[in-house]
Amino acid sequence: MLARVIGAAHDLSWCDARSAGATTYDVRRVQLRAAVAQRPHLVCLAAGLADVRDPQWDLAATRAHLLHCARVLSHRGAVLLTTRQGAGRRGQAGSWRSASRRLRIRQLDGLYDELHERFGTIHLDPGDTGGARPSAAELTGRFVHELTRHGLELPAVSLARHS
Fold this sequence. Notes:
The protein is built from six helices and three strands. The longest helix has 21 residues, at 99-119. It has helices at residues 2-7, 24-37, 49-53, 59-75, 99-119, 136-149; strands spanning 42-44, 79-83, 122-124. It has a single domain (2-162), classed as Rossmann fold (3-Layer(aba) Sandwich), CATH 3.40.50.
C-alpha cells in the first residue's frame, strides 16, 4: 500500500522481497541480496517475528542479523522504515499470550529502537491501541505522515482505495 501511495507522486520501482515465515537469518542471507540489487532509496525493514516464535530464539543472533542488514542498506544510501512490533498484539489468540513471547516482542522492539538510534530510521511506534492491532491502512497512513514530515512530497491519497 505504501508503494502505491508513493508511486502516485513519484517514479517508483518496487521490489517485494518478503517471505512469510522468514527469520532474520533468511532476511540477511536471501532477502538482503535481493534488496541491495535494486539499489533502493527506501526500505521497510521488518523482520524478527518468526525468530521470537522459535523456542530456541537467540536474541544476540537476531540483533546481529538486523544490525548487518541495516548497516548494509544504510551504507548504500537507503532510508530505512522500521516499526515496533508489540503494539496491539496483547490479547490475541495463540502464541502471543505467553509471558515469554511478550518479553521477546519487547526485546525485538528494543532492537528496532536501537536501529533507529544507530541508523536514523524512520521509526513508528504504533503505541497501545487498546488490544487492536493497527490495520495495514493505518500503518501506511502513519508512514506517509512520517515520510512527509521528513521531506518527501506525497499527495493526499485516500488509503481506503489502496487496501
